[in-house]
Amino acid sequence: MIVEDGRAAELAIERRGQRSVVGNVWKGRVGNVLSGMEAAFVDVGLDKSGFLHVDEIVALGTPRNKRRITDMIKKGDEVLVQATKDPMGTKGVRLTMQLSLAGRFLVYTPYGEGVGVSRRLPDDERRRLRDVFSRISVSEGGVILRTAAAGVEAKDLARDLESLTKLWVALKKRAEKIKVPSPLYGEADISLKVIRDLLNEGVDAVHVDDQDQFDRITSFLKRTSPDMAKRVNLHEGPGPLLARNGAEEAIKSTVERRVPLNSGGYLIIDDTEALTVIDVNSGRNVGGRGNRLEDTVTATNLEAAEEVVRQLRLRDIGGIVVIDFIDMDKAKNRNAVLSAVNSALENDRTRSYVVPEISPLGLVQLSRQNRADGPREVMTEVCEDCGGAGWLLTDETLAIDAARRIVSKLRGREEKGFKVSLPSASVDALTADEDRLDELTAALGMELELAVDDSLPDDAIRIRRSTL
């Protein structure tokens, strides 16, 4: 968990057997090649084949607009591919052949070229790093200097690059020997990834409550950033580590639909397969004496803007996001709210794009990259009764539906007695109201014997001659 200004800002949850595969490398085999989609499916040994788009194929010197998937790979080809996005829902893992190996201070791209520097660094630091790295030789491939490289000198950068190039040589040799499909390289677990990617001069301290993890992390840092190892602390105090800084409450809140604001307002967050919708409500925030409605609304929206971005990060919400702020009359207030959203997103490491204007309907629209399941997906499962829809049919609806099915099956039959088997929920709904069942038998002019059969689908019915 990342804590900023005393509040939980980001969560990363990993369960045994459910580790993210982003960054993993496989030797896979090309399956179907879809010329109409300019993509191919690659078998890497997972439950579902991975998706490889033509733009993710290594093709040095070939402009993207001239690439054709059928000219570059064919069914049965053996390829080295890397995961850029975890399997989600019905979709398999997203793949690329543009491999990248992440180190402490830089990312080595074997099929890339040139030197890039993180745009999150100030311009003067980016210039310094380019100058420092110009004295380091790169025999092949490209390099991207990470945010963690801020203040780092040439010897540390060179050591990182040497380690990654040796890793690449070893992977190539192993790839020649293993069968297809087989894993070739696995990313570090979540704890080391967080340390590797986020621990920099802007981090005050790292707290760990497990001795083995503490030893692994400090060992890693002593090899890569000895000075940073001093910032890692083993939590041995009273009470669980996650009880500090509201961590447990933050974890639980990620599965809640309603998010309270300090002012008395609240957010409602609804997720669908297509997008996430966030509604801002004023709630109990009616403003102070003498405040105009526009001022109260704007204050609530500005508070909500920061909390919305915090929830995007906490829940790791990706895809299209639509935020319905409370209506504001003045353009300057609308612009202030949009600016607050953009400002809050500056602290978000995940790439996002915000539509530059609030829509005529008062909506802020943005897209946010999503690479893995968030806390809600990890901690919850689909409800067997509602199928993930979030709602169930009422007893009244079940009773009416069951009665209609019975009438449709038995109307006009000459026999006077039938045994009707239904799922238990339908039987319970029908028998809860004796008048309803009496009316049904009177309308049909026959006796009905109801029986429970939970092997039937919810909307099914079985009719037999009654032996009574």
Describe this structure in words.
The structure is a single chain. The protein has 468 residues and is an alpha+beta fold. Helices cover 31% and strands 23% of the residues. It has twelve helices and 23 strands. It has a six-stranded mixed beta sheet, with helices on one face. Helix 7 packs parallel to helix 8 and helix 10 crosses helix 11. It is globular.
Q: How do the helices and strands line up, and which of them pair or pack?
A:
Elements: E1 2-4, E2 7-10, E3 25-34, E4 39-43, E5 50-53, H1 69-72, E6 78-85, E7 94-96, E8 101-102, E9 106-109, E10 115-117, H2 123-133, E11 142-145, H3 154-175, E12 182-185, H4 190-198, E13 206-208, H5 211-224, E14 232-234, H6 247-253, E15 258-260, E16 266-271, E17 275-281, H7 293-315, E18 319-324, H8 331-345, E19 352-354, E20 363-368, H9 375-379, H10 395-410, E21 417-422, H11 424-431, H12 434-444, E22 447-452, E23 462-465
Parallel strand pairs: 5-7, 10-11, 13-14, 17-18, 21-22
Antiparallel strand pairs: 1-2, 3-4, 3-6, 3-12, 4-5, 6-7, 8-9, 9-11, 15-16, 16-17, 18-20, 19-20, 21-23
Helix pairs in contact: 7-8, 10-11
